[in-house]
Amino acid sequence: MSSLATARDVRVIAHRGASHEHPEHTLAAYRQAIDDGADALECDVRLSADGRLVCVHDRRVERTSDGRGIVSAMTYEELAGLDFGGWKGEAHRGAQVLLFEDLLKEALAADRPVGLAVETKHPTRAGGRLETELVRVLREHGLADGSDGRVEVMSFSRNALVRLNRLAPGLPAVYLIERAVRPPRPPFAGHAGPGIDLLRKDPGLVARLKAKGLRVRVWTVDEPEDVELCLRLGVDTLITNRPREVREYLRGR
Ligand code: G3P
Ligand code: CA
């Protein structure tokens, strides 16, 4: 296959939305990512104290809001009272925490198919409640059987993926890899997701993962030299904070 065909075939996923430009995990970041041509939207989900799935990366709210506290100890109403935009600059002040369900509706309302790559954060702490709630919400929208491949679940926790696989066997799953571990095997995950730092140190990892029958997606790929490395290695999907730039780079190649 020529490198041009490869570049065109690579999927681009917006990491926390177009999060280089906008505050991560906000509606504005995801709308921008859709406008930028992202194939799918990545989001981290956590459970609030009252059992709502919210899109927040950190365990605590301090870095990305004007509040203090642990996400799982706060109710949705408490989280909704915080400003999740001001930390990124005055222009973004007033952005609210995003419910996973609202993100789902936004993706479904787009005028082209836009996928969702949902990462469960520290699911073991919630003892299975997070996965159960995620599958419940997906089921409500007819998306839990995975038949259209629109929603994928991702986790660094093998247990979480096994649990999700039991609850919703058809959902495509991505096993995220932080350190060089023994490559995971299907069937509980069809994709593996190493970080770009790991790939720079161990480029042979992609071939080893592919030899196990896994597709490979890499996070977080923002720089042209990293895009090039991924293309050279035959990576299938790029997760990036800069969906527009990466999309344009791939187009121009
Ligand atoms: O998409 C995978 C990547 O998001 C994992 O790292 O810390 O950004 O959630 P993190
Ligand atoms: Ca993530």
Automatic annotation (TrEMBL):
Q: Where is the GP-PDE domain?
A: 10-250
UniProt-listed PROSITE patterns: GP_PDE
InterPro entries, alphabetized: GP_PDE_dom (IPR030395), PLC-like_Pdiesterase_TIM-brl (IPR017946)
Q: What is this protein called?
A: Glycerophosphodiester phosphodiesterase
The record ties this protein, via PANTHER family, to: GLYCEROPHOSPHODIESTER PHOSPHODIESTERASE 1-RELATED, GLYCEROPHOSPHORYL DIESTER PHOSPHODIESTERASE
Membrane-crossing ranges are: none
